[in-house]
Amino acid sequence: MRSTRFFPVIIISILLFIIACDNEVPVKELTNARVAIEQAVSVNAEKYAAEELEEAKISLMKAHEQLLKDEKPGDSAKSAGVSYDKAMEAYNKSLPFYSQDAIDRAETAISEADAVNAEKLAPVYFEEAKELYRQAGEEHKDREYLEAHSLAESSYDAAVKAKEESVDNRYKLGFQIGEVTSILRKIENYDYESYAPEEYALALEYLRKAENEYAENQLKNGFDSIETARINADRAYRFTMEGVTEERIEEAELVLAEAEDAKGDTSDEDYAAAREALDISKKLRREGDFEESLTYSNEAIRLGNMVVEDSKKVASGCSMLGSDKVQKDDDLAKDSSDDYTYYTVKSWEKYKDCLWRISGEYYKNPRLWRKIYNANRDRIKNPDLIKPGWVIRIPKLK
Length: 398
Fold this sequence. Notes:
Number of helices: 18
Distance between the termini: 100 Å
Strand content: under 5%
Helix content: over 70%
Radius of gyration: 44 Å
Structural class: mainly alpha
Order of helices and strands: HHHHHHHHHHHHHHHEHHHE
Strand order of the largest sheet: 1-2
Largest sheet: 2 strands, antiparallel
């Protein structure tokens, strides 16, 4: 196959021929044929109209050869005309394919961007790609093939950018996978098989699916999978924690019922603290704060059991007397010392009173709450539970 790279050499030969003789040269016809071939090549005629393009090249070469062999200029003009016609035939035949191939390429790029969830992760580029693709399709239908090709190429570029931006943002899927994993790890600390076995199994199945899709960059499918996993994980967590907290509260109720029958004067405060802890546990459960609810119900059980154990010690003559007896609030308030300030505890419901807040008030640093706790261990058994009306020591900072 002869190539158009020989054309400059041929043109130089023609110019020398023109200088050397006075014969009329069909410059216009030769130029038109050459330009037509270049146009055909520009729309990839080598692929879509190879036969016609080759005939055009051969005819143009023949026209040049006829001039160089001192044949009639008219014959050269006719060969150039044939070359032009074949080149235009190749051009016109190639145009629709040239346009359609660009549209197909853009469609593939948009599909690949969609697969990595570009609609959410790179919405600007993704919408631009889709709109340009739509316009390219309209122009193609109207046989405006060059404009269609240009729009399709722009669509392709935007789709590639959308895909690249989405892949760069894949960490979002990784973060969501981590969140769902954390929920399932919490559930596994409790008896989920009794309360939400199906929801847990579905959540785990789709979590594994999302992990695989994340690894393979199938981000759109990955986001769909992790959403299903999250829905089931949330349901499994709620069902499990509702069941566990209800069971623990019922256990605390039984312990406190036993403690109420067993308590004496020296254990009134422990019993009251246990009852307060149980009430807080119920409130937190209603609000959906299940883990904190468990903390308080466990504390109610602990304090209730202490009351029961103390009653057994009293019954056996082993009660703690003398220096181990908890100091009354009135006596404590009367103590005077340069080392302490005394503070009367307010209610949690109204004042949100707790060791953290009190430390912030007195020390300007709530993180020093342990100083107060350590100074009142004879009164405060659980730093999270302080009773309104208690008078507590506030150590003075040296």
